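Hi R.,

Here's the chain you asked about this morning:
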Amino acid sequence: MAYNKKKKRFFRVIKIVILLYVIIGIALYYFQEKLLLHPKAYSKDYSYRFNVPFKEINIPINKNENLNLVKFLPTNSVNKGIILYFHGNMNNINHYAKFTGNFTKHGYEVWMPDYPGFGKTTGKLTEEKLYQHAKLVYKLANAEISSDSIIIYGRSFGTGIASYLATAVDFKQLILETPYYSVPALFSYYGPVYPTSLMAKFNLPVNEYLKDVTMPITIFHGTDDALIPYSVTKKLNSSLKVTDEFITIENGEHNNLSSFKLFQVKLDSLLR
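And the predicted structure, written out as C-alpha cells:
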C-alpha cells in the first residue's frame, strides 16, 4: 500500500511538472514578442524636440505603412560620413538620441530609423520587414554619399539588423554594441529546457551574418551585461576575421558602455 501511494504521488508530480512545462512553453511562444520588444508608439502629429540639429524624414512604404527616420546632424559644416544607427528594443528614437553626440562631434550624420510599432513608424514588425527597411535607409544614404563614408552601427536588438545589412551592401565599418549570438541562442540561455530554435519567431543570426561580412568589424561588450550575457556574446569570436576586434569592457553593463574610457577612446579612434 505504501509503495502504491508513493508511486501515485510520483506520477502526480511528473504530471504537474509536464503541465507546467507545457503551459510556460506556450506562454513563452505567444508572448515572446512582448518579452523581446518594448516599443513606444507616437501619433503622426508628434513633434520631436532635440537639443541638437536634426531633420525628420517620413518615408511612405505603402498606403498603410510609414517608415520614420531622424537625421542627427553635426554641429559644424564638415560632413565626414553617415552613421546608420540601428537602436535597441526599448521605446523609440527619443530613448537613443542621447548617444548620437558620440558621432556628430566627429562630423558624422547619424541616421536613426524606428522599427514598425516604434515611434512614428507604422506596420507589423517582422524580421523580413526590418531587413527591408534597413536596405531602404541605406539606399537613401548611399544616394547622398559614397559607400566608403557609411558606417553601420548596431546596438543590442539592432545588432542583428546591422549585421544583416553588412552582408548586403558596401560600407566602411561595422560596429556592434552589446550584440547577441542569435535570438534563439539568447532565449536558450534563459530557457535551456525549451527547443528555442523551433519556438523563436525571430532569428536574427548575428553569428551567421558576421561570417559573410568582408569589411572591418568591431564589437563592444561588457562583462557584467545582465540582459545579453557576455558568455553568450563571446561565442561571436568564432565568426570574426583575424583583423576584426572584440573589445571587452570590464564591469560594463548593458546600458552604460559609453561611460567607460576604453569605449570612448576606441570609438573615437574608429571615427577619426
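The two ends are 80 Å apart (CA to CA).

Let me know if you need anything else.
M.
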